[in-house]
Amino acid sequence: MSSTVERRRKLLKVKKKIDGRRPKFVKPESWRYVRVHPSWRRPRGLDNRVRRRKKGWPASPKAGYGSPKAVRGIHPSGMEEVFVYNVGDLAIIDPETQVARIGGSVGGRKRIAIVEEALKRGIKVLNPGKGRAVMEAGETEGEEEEET
């Protein structure tokens, strides 16, 4: 188990290095015109300089810019993210290797319930939102119990 954790940690360092070198891929000439949004679209024009890979023009996405397959989709902490939409979804999470991310469509009341249950089970929640107060209250209670 520890060898896989060490391997994953090493690959995450490699991923961070690659991410730093990777250029920001923007739609050609989006820096020039306000009406052209920067989100990447593949250039298809016959005379397009980016498509023809001319010097001085931005690079296009290629397979070589990719990160190691073993750490794709892994949170920078080295844990696997699991989407949670209700309290029952927390049952499948392993606190040693996984962290919870609450779905965007989950409302405030259910979010607080999920955060409370995650605290009981020792599961880290990446985006507690309104449940943050519950998490902080749970952390201070844990510290008080340790002192007594």
Gist of the model:
The protein has helices spanning 2-21, 108-121, 132-147; strands at residues 80-84, 98-102.
Description of the molecule:
The chain is mainly α. The protein has two domains: about 5-65, no CATH class; about 80-145, no CATH class. It contains three helices and two strands. The protein has helices at about 1-20, 110-120, 130-145, and strands at about 80-85, 100. A two-stranded parallel ribbon has the order 1-2. Helix 2 (about 110-120) runs parallel beside helix 3. The relative contact order is 0.10.
Q: Over the alpha carbons, how many angstroms does the gyration radius reach?
A: 22 Å
Biggest β-sheet: count, sense, barrel? 2 strands, parallel
Number of domains: 2
Strand content: 5-15%
Q: Helix amount, in percent?
A: 25-40%
Helical element count? 3
Mean pLDDT reading: 88
Helix/strand/pairing category = mainly alpha
Any low-confidence stretches, pLDDT <50, length ≥5?
none
Shape: elongated
Helix-strand pattern, N to C?
A: HEEHH
Q: Using DSSP, what is the number of strands?
A: 2
Strand order of the largest sheet: 1-2
Report how far apart the termini are.
Answer: 35 Å
